[in-house]
Amino acid sequence: MELTFELVAFLMAVAFLAGAVDAIAGGGGLLTLPALLAAGASPAAALGTNKLQSTFGVATAVITFARKGRIDLRRFGGPAIAAFLGSVGGAFVLTRIDPEFLSGLIPALLIAMVIYYSLKPNLSDEDRHVRARPVLLLAVALVIGFYDGFFGPGTGSFLTTALIAAFGLGTVNAIAHTKLLNFASNLASLVVLLAAGEVLIVPGLAMAVASVAGGYVGAHSALRFGGKAVRPLLIVMCLALTAKLLADPANPLTAAILEWWAGASR
User: Fold this and answer.
1) Is 122 helix (H, G, I), strand (E, B) or coil?
2) pLDDT tens digit string along 201-256?
3) What is the rounded CA–CA span in Å between residue 240 and residue 262?
4) Are the beta carbons of 22 and 154 closer than 8 angstroms?
5) GO CC terms on record (predicted)?
6) Going along 51-179, which residue ranges are E strands?
7) What residues make up the domain containing 66?
8) 58 vs 53: CA distance, rounded Å
9) CB-CB contact of 163 with 26 (8 Å)
10) Which of 8, 97, 128, 237 is deepest in the core (most CB within 10 A)?
11) End-to-end alpha-carbon separation of the chain, Å?
12) What are the tens digits of pLDDT across the range 38-87?
């Protein structure tokens, strides 16, 4: 990758927008990963560099929510550690096997989330009382953390949906704690990819500065507008990620659909 002022400025602009989107609904990688690939980074380096910049952006969102009293470390400190350890495990497994088999399953899960958010009457900003055991929260954080280290797309959306549907959190509190857990899993992935030499430091740090600003703006927007603004953005990001995954002809689900269509049209 040949770094020029114009290229760095472009990557920073994308990182700012991605940081804002990520702080509200997740899915900022939909913007930054294609930008890094278009700039000439290898797939592995694009993934590592994206983890660098997004870690800073998510950290900013966490700090912003914490200052507003939206982070409960007593309840979510353990799950954050579980997400970190899960992500380390996922990144380790990633170095041993091909994660492509997951790419056919994820669009179906994302579509299910779109249906959930579309049919749910309202997304309240108030927490509900749900008698879910703390060990279940640890398990969810561990599993989704593993997924983030192993594959990644949709992690923020999965976490937010789980915290709202299964654990009774209000929309803004769910987003705030999603950022905490996502920060832990991002940090773990970043450590592994740094050790593997798959991070472009200079463009990554430049993007991190912009991502911090975007994360600040996005977190304040979520606090100000609450669930009314979050639900449509969650739906849009889930649909966009689904479309991106299914646009790849190599995706197992896409390949199966194309094969079925070819057989049906004969």
Assistant:
1) coil
2) 999 999 999 999 998 888 888 777 765 666 676 677 667 777 877 887 877 778 88
3) 25
4) no
5) plasma membrane
6) none
7) 5-264
8) 9
9) no
10) 237
11) 46
12) 888 877 788 789 889 989 988 988 998 999 899 999 999 999 999 999 99
Range in 23-27, 65-69, 74-78, 160-164 with the lowest mean pLDDT: 23-27
> What is the C-alpha to C-alpha distance for residues 210 and 220, in angstroms, rounded to an integer?
16
Distances (CA, A) of 246 to 31, 86, 106, 238: 16, 26, 10, 12
Q: Token pair of 26, please? A: 């997740």
Mean pLDDT value across the chain: 82
Taking the C-alpha atoms of residue 89 and residue 185, their distance in angstroms, rounded to an integer, is 10
Work out whether the CA dihedral 103, 237, 234, 141 comes out positive or negative: positive
Tokens (6 digits) for 38: 């278009």
Decide if 28 contacts 11 (C-beta within 8 A). no
Sign for the CA dihedral angle at 231, 232, 235, 240 comes to negative
How much is the pLDDT for 19?
Answer: 86
* Structural domain count of the chain: 1
Query: What is the rounded CA–CA span in Å between residue 28 and residue 35?
Result: 11
Confidence at residue 242, expressed as pLDDT on a 0 to 100 scale: 78
* Closest by Cα among 221, 235, 204 to 27: 235
Give yes or no for a contact between 233 and 25, defined as CB atoms under 8 angstroms apart.
yes
Rounded Cα–Cα distance for residues 130 and 252 (Å): 37
Count CB-CB contacts under 10 A for residue 62. 25
Distances (CA, A) of 100 to 38, 39, 72, 88, 164: 21, 24, 36, 19, 29
